[in-house]
């Protein structure tokens, strides 16, 4: 049975590779020149949580082990806040404040920043914890590499009143920059140029952070993860270093742990290649050749999209369509090799 499953999986994957190659023939050739793209993440804001009990306080509210923040080589952790039913409320990157163990910065989507603060205050109870929105003090930027050459590296350290921090999810996502709100894109670009000796460009239509994320299959914010609609493992939180299965109890922990230990995760976020950009009146439903729905588009930009996909059903399908137009699903390169085998085994059990 294992041999049959593996042969079937290889057949699906070879068909997927062929479809991706057909889709990419319509795209311009990838640039061979290495360069960094810099973007002001206006959709992200920072909340400062300060107090002697800040670590145990956040430990009971988030999926990751906040205690590891102190030993993290990047000084950051990816995590999620869940509701009692184990569904995602808010995704976040948390940062340790330099030389202040009683302060943690939480980066989240600006559209739910106030809701996140209310959520924190609800569970603060009598703890002496101070919670403030510091969007007027600090802004979040990102820097990521494009090109086919060797990886370019930035020093992960405070430089000229700006913190350079590696993205805790994937190396391909590059770096986060926490800079004072008065810093301009020209100042930041000049500083990065001096640090890396690499070409620096500001984001544009052809190269921007959202397009880069969707190419990788990484969700971020409430557009990709509407509050209360998805489970953390469907959003790849486990393979993006965003959940600890050893930390103990937190809100939503019971269902998350049960799903992890049973291994039944049939749907996950995956990147899509579109033949044409989606129209505003799109159904956002991805269907197989029999017309059955096998996924739902969460967001798209140009000919790239992110979808919540029934993995096994999508990979078995000869032709996927959205609104009757062909599309193809990609298997992210950063997925663990055994993940697909587990999906096939569970589906056929």
From TrEMBL:
NCBIfam families: ygfZ_signature. This is Transferase CAF17 homolog, mitochondrial. It comes from Musca domestica (House fly). InterPro entries: CAF17_C, GCVT_N, TrmE/GcvT-like, YgfZ/GCV_T_CS, YgfZ/GcvT. Keywords: Mitochondrion, Transferase, Transit peptide. Residues 34-139 form the GCVT N-terminal domain. Residues 266-336 form the CAF17 C-terminal domain. Its main location: mitochondrion.
């Amino acid at each position: 049975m294992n041999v049959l499953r593996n042969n079937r999986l290889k057949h699906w994957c070879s068909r997927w590779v062929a479809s991706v190659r057909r889709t990419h023939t319509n795209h311009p050739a990838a640039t061979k020149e290495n360069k960094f793209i810099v973007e002001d993440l206006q959709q992200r804001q920072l909340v400062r949580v300060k107090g002697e009990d800040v670590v145990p306080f956040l430990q009971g509210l988030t999926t990751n082990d906040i205690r590891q923040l102190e030993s993290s080589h990047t000084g950051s952790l990816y995590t999620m806040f869940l509701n009692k039913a184990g569904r995602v409320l808010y995704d976040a990157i948390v940062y340790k404040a330099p030389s202040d163990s009683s302060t943690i910065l939480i980066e989240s989507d600006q559209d739910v920043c106030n809701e996140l603060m209310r959520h924190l205050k609800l569970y603060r109870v009598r703890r002496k914890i101070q919670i403030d929105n510091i969007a007027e003090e600090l802004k979040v930027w990102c820097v990521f590499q494009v090109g086919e050459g060797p990886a370019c590296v930035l020093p992960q350290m405070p430089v000229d009143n700006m913190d350079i921090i590696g993205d805790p999810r994937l190396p391909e996502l590059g770096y986060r920059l926490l800079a004072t709100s008065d810093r301009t894109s020209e100042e930041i670009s000049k500083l990065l140029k001096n640090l890396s000796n690499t070409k620096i460009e500001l984001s544009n239509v052809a190269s921007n952070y959202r397009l880069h994320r969707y190419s990788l299959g990484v969700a971020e914010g409430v557009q990709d993860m509407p509050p209360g609609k998805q489970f953390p493992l469907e959003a790849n939180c486990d393979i993006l270093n965003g959940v600890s299965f050893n930390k103990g109890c937190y809100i939503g922990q019971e269902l998350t742990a049960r799903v992890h230990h049973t291994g039944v995760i049939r749907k996950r976020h995956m990147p899509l290649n579109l033949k044409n950009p989606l129209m505003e009146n799109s159904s956002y439903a991805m269907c197989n050749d029999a017309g059955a729905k096998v996924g739902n588009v969460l967001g798209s930009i140009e000919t790239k999209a992110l979808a919540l996909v029934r993995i096994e059903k999508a990979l078995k399908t000869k032709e996927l369509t959205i609104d009757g137009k062909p599309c193809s699903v990609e298997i992210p390169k950063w997925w663990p090799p055994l993940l697909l085998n587990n999906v096939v085994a569970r589906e056929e059990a």
